[in-house]
Amino acid sequence: MTPPEPTGAQAHFRALEALYAAAPINQLFESALEIPEPGVARIRFQVDPCFFHAAGAAHGTTYFKMLDDAAFYAANSLITDRFLLTTQFNLLLTKPLSEGPVVAEGRWVSGQRRVFVAEARLVDATGEEVARGTGTFMRSRIALAALPGYRSE
Q1: What is the per-residue pLDDT for 125?
Q2: Would residue 13 count as lying in a domain?
Q3: Which of 27, 62, 113, 134 is at a distance of 20 to 30 A from 48, taking alpha carbons?
């Protein structure tokens, strides 16, 4: 027996997860997005040595990408019609990130009309926070339903 198709918010969350997986940039990162509830997003990924800078730890682009994505999807989980765009993002890097599993946890903070604020943190395999960030995101003119990969069943 096949499980029933998700509806409402759950269908939107699954469609955003499919959109994340379909983005060409995510072919470079072994990662998976999960949206368990409105305003919350979690990305599990593997830091690979190919992301290291010359001193043998993850380059800052890795931190930014995962923090921005987690905060973005936490905010975009709250609206079903438009794609959000990052307009600003602040980072605080507190510990070098080495090879292994990492989780980016994003949470919506405020805003529900045009501009949204969301934050995210990176947690390493030991459970320690290694970075955090806060971003602002605004509604674009891009319809989610028009994007390849967004599959709302």
Answers
A1: 93
A2: yes
A3: 134
The answer to whether 135 and 72 are in contact (CB under 8 A) is yes
Beta bridge partners of 11: none
> What is the pLDDT, as a whole number, of residue 1?
59
Q: From CA 138, how far away is CA 80, in angstroms rounded?
A: 13
99 lies in some domain: yes
**Domain CATH code at residue 139:** 3.10.129.10
Among residues 117, 34, 103, 113, which one has the least CA distance to residue 75?
A: 117
Domain assignment of residue 48, given as a range: 8-146
pLDDT, averaged per 10 consecutive residues of the chain (153 residues), comes to 70 97 92 97 96 94 97 97 97 95 98 94 96 98 94 64
- At 59 the pLDDT is 95
3-state secondary structure of 119: strand
Among 13, 30, 20, which Cα is nearest to 152's? 13
Helices (H), 1-153: 8-22, 60-76
